[in-house]
Amino acid sequence: MADTTPVDWSALRAAAVEAGTHAYVPYSQYPVGAAALTEDGRLVTGCNVENSSYGLTLCAECGLVSELHRSGGGRLAAFVCVNGSGEIIMPCGRCRQLLVEHAAPGMQFDTVSGVRTLDEVLPDAFGRGDIDDYRATQRSDS
Ligand code: THU
Prior knowledge:
By secondary structure, this protein is α+β, with helices and mostly antiparallel strands. The chain has helices spanning about 10-20, 60-70, 95-100, 120, 130-140; strands at about 30-40, 45, 75-85, 105-110, 115. It has five helices and five strands. The longest helix has 14 residues, at about 130-140. The structure holds tetrahydrodeoxyuridine.
C-alpha cells in the first residue's frame, strides 16, 4: 500500500475502538486501542495491558506490533490509536519510536490534527541507519 492509497479511516478507527474493549487497565482505567493496516492489507490491532509494577505496562502499540509479526510480519501502512471514548489520541514518545521501526515509508497516521506522517510527529528519528552508518565507519577504520 503506497502512502497515497485511500484508507477507510472510520473502519480502522472502529477496529481500534473494538481492540480497546479488551484493554486490561485496573490501575489507570484508561483503555487504549490501536489498529493498523499492513502493506499487504492485513488488519492488526492491540490494546494496553497494565501491570502492578507500573513501568511494565504494555501500551496498545506494543500489542499491535506483536500481532504484526505473529500474523506474518511486514510493515504498517496506516495507523490509528483511540481512548475508551473512541477519541483519537497521540501515541506516547516511546510508541512513536516503536512505530518508526515497523512502519512502511510514508505510513499514514491519523492524529488529533489530521492525517500525518511519522516524520511529522517524530522528526529526525533515530533508526537502523544510524547504527549501520556507525558500524560502517568502524569497519573502514580497521
Ligand atoms: N497508553 C497506550 O496504550 N498507548 C499510548 O501511546 C499512550 C498510553 C496507555 C498506557 C497506560 O495503560 C494508559 O494508557 C495510561 O497511561
